[in-house]
């Protein structure tokens, strides 16, 4: 089996773009060990000098910075910029006036003898990161680097430095669960004890970013108290990657701890005991998605408790971890790219596998807020599992519907379950077990998990609000770098001027969206496509005339099944077309091979499209191409020969592409062909919704 490293758009989705990007960065990184062994991510507790920031000028008059005076040690002057970065300059290189001022303030400065030699007159002090960002105390040693496993010395308050244990585990003899349901009907007791926690509506100022390359990656919210952990990735070209971590109190808005660690990590789960579960996504520029770590917050200390490789010894997709969760009783759930979900329990320095089951590959399960149930996407079905008993409650079929890379969402009240598969949602009522909705959403950008706000509203991609009851793409919340939730309050990380950053809490749906929906539903012409609508079919865009009749028959059957009336004319037209593209360079490799061993091949591309056109305007579009994501080679067949078979338009697309049941009039701000255009749109800024 051969997989494609850099997959082109299939129905509008670039599946492996991130993998390819990681591969490109490998050649630009140099191996390094620039960190002093110390406590993981400790609180920065140095006091700031009382002087106000001012403009400092060098002796040439060409260079100026805004900074506060910190110290004068020998001939070296230390200044603190407003960004939090300390700068060191030789006294003789300051302007005459600034030299005198530095000498006058020297007695008030704190001591710091460390320095680095730089050619620039304003140079970062030793102890700063390679990116120019400020270290909030000593950084954690690299767990996978030689010499990085010694116990960390105390720093900050010194009250807790972490166990820093290397956990072992094995799945030998683990109980393999089958998705065999206890009942033939999916019915859960409704959870009416849900109480949503509230937050102040004001924004929270986050520490300024080190530079342009620093991006918020993930955020975790504590299940029992108003506390969140934000992880930032700092990955400038040619420099070693870093993860910066900020712990903050959501009620007071105060930062309680911050620091950084070598390599790139993303947040996975936050336990009630303060355990932060993270997975490593990059190690010195190379992929390492099989490593998980547990970090702990105790007082003002944030330290590593353990590191662990649950997929060690696995191969191919099974070695890449993609999801995890911490249950209320401390058990840990993990899922790999191959679809294996495993339940673990910590016993000393060992993780014991309690059970595992096989879900659909590349899927993401979901656990209810109370930790009682898990929703799972599997082959041709979805399932709900009781996590306390370890039994599958029931399953529901998805037969005949293509749900690539499915993500599950189960509501806090245990009343609704959704399976979102790239451009479509299937919704079930968990009290009756009935499927109540299938909604063609079109491709949705964003990697955030789906979230139920209540029985009628679902947020997709961290930004698109879907009215499930009326099958409407209601509102698009743009402008945020990333989004997570404190119960049903959206937490949006947004940037400001000079690399500033804020956390904006907004209860969703916001009042303007609800009011707009109420008015829109009064419009009798809101839906331009619904059951009973007459639709015309246009296949003149199919390049091969011999294929036109067959494709028209397939589309007629599809439209009739949806409840539409197919005619020679209609208020809305379904247009089918194919077009030749250019020769594409694609990379393929065998499963189990490293990404950098992929080889490039030239493939002639063809695009297949379906469009709904209303009043001359494109209101929905689906597309696919002919370039395969995977190749199965027969005996003695080469990759070139296998690819040659695919160098023609993908006519199967017109039979398998899902078309919507409902379409609304396009919003005024909608772009042509935008299948995710919402009725309304707001931009999240540091001042709130605009």
UniProtKB/TrEMBL annotation:
Residues 50-107 form the SLA1 homology domain. Residues 144-162 have a biased composition (Low complexity). Residues 108-165 are annotated as: Disordered. GO terms for molecular function: cytoskeletal protein binding; identical protein binding; protein-macromolecule adaptor activity; ubiquitin binding. Pfam families: SHD1 (PF03983). SUPFAM superfamilies: YVTN repeat-like/Quinoprotein amine dehydrogenase. InterPro entries: Quino_amine_DH_bsu, SHD1, WD40/YVTN_repeat-like_dom_sf. This is SLA1 homology domain-containing protein.
């Amino acid at each position: 089996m051969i997989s494609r490293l850099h997959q082109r758009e299939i129905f509008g989705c670039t599946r492996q773009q991130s993998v390819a990007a990681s591969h490109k960065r490998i050649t630009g990184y140099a191996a390094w060990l620039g960190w002093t062994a110390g406590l993981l991510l400790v609180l920065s507790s140095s006091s700031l000098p009382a002087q106000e920031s001012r403009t400092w000028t060098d002796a040439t008059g060409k260079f100026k910075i805004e900074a506060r005076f910190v110290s004068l040690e020998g001939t070296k002057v230390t200044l603190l910029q407003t960004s939090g970065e300390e700068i060191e300059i030789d006294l003789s290189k300051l302007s005459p006036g600034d030299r005198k001022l530095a000498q006058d303030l020297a007695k008030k400065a704190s001591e710091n003898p460390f320095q680095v030699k730089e050619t620039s007159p304003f140079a970062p002090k030793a102890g700063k990161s390679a990116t120019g960002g400020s270290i909030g105390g000593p950084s954690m040693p690299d767990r996978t680097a030689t010499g990085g496993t010694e116990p960390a010395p105390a720093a900050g308050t010194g009250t807790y430095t972490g166990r820093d244990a290397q956990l072992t585990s094995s799945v030998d003899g683990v109980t393999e669960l089958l998705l065999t349901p206890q009942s033939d009907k999916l019915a859960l007791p409704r959870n009416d004890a849900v109480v949503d926690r509230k937050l102040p509506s004001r924004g929270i100022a986050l520490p300024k970013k080190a530079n342009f390359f620093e991006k918020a990656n993930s955020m975790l919210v504590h299940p029992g108290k108003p506390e969140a952990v934000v992880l930032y990735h700092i990955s400038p070209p040619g420099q070693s990657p870093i993860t910066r971590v900020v712990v903050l109190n959501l009620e007071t808005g105060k930062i309680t701890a911050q620091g950084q660690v070598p390599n790139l990590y993303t947040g996975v789960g936050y336990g009630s005991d303060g355990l932060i579960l993270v997975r490593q996504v990059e190690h010195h520029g190379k992929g390492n998605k099989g490593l998980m770590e547990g970090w702990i917050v105790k007082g003002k200390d944030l330290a590593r408790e353990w590191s662990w490789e649950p997929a060690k010894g696995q191969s191919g997709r099974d070695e890449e971890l993609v999801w995890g969760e911490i249950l209320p009783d401390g058990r840990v759930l993990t899922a790999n790219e191959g679809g294996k979900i495993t339940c673990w329990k910590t016993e000393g320095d060992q993780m014991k596998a309690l059970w595992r089951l096989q879900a659909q590959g590349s899927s993401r399960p979901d656990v209810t807020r109370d930790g009682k149930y898990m929703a799972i996407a599997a082959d041709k079905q979805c399932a709900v599992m009781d996590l306390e008993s370890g039994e599958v409650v029931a399953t529901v079929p998805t037969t005949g519907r293509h749900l690539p890379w499915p993500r599950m969402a189960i509501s806090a009240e245990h009343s609704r379950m959704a399976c979102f598969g790239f451009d479509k949602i299937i919704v079930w009522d968990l009290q009756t077990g009935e499927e109540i909705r299938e909604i063609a959403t079109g491709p949705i950008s964003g990697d955030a998990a789906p979230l139920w706000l209540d029985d009628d509203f679902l947020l997709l991609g961290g930004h698109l609000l879907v009215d499930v009851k009326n099958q409407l793409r209601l509102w698009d919340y743009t402008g945020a770098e990333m989004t997570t939730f404190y119960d049903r309050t959206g937490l949006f990380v947004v940037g400001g001027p000079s690399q500033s950053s804020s956390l904006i809490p907004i209860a969703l749906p916001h009042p303007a969206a609800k009011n707009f929906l109420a008015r829109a539903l009064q419009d009798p012409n809101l839906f331009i496509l619904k059951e009973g609508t007459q639709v015309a079919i246009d296949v003149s865009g199919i390049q091969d005339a011999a294929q036109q009749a067959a494709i028209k028959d397939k589309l007629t059957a599809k439209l009739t099944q949806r409840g539409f009336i197919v005619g020679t004319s209609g208020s809305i037209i379904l247009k089918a077309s194919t077009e030749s593209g250019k020769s594409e360079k694609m990379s393929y490799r065998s499963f189990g091979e490293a990404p950098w061993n992929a080889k490039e091949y030239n493939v002639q591309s063809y695009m297949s499209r379906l469009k709904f056109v209303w009043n001359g305007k494109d209101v929905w579009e689906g597309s696919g191409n002919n370039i395969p994501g995977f190749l199965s080679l027969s005996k003695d067949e080469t990759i070139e020969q296998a690819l040659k078979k695919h160098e023609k338009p993908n006519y199967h697309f017109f039979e398998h592409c899902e078309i919507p049941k409902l379409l609304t009039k396009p919003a005024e701000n909608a772009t042509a062909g935008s299948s995710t255009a919402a009725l309304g749109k707001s931009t999240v800024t540091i001042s709130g919704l605009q």
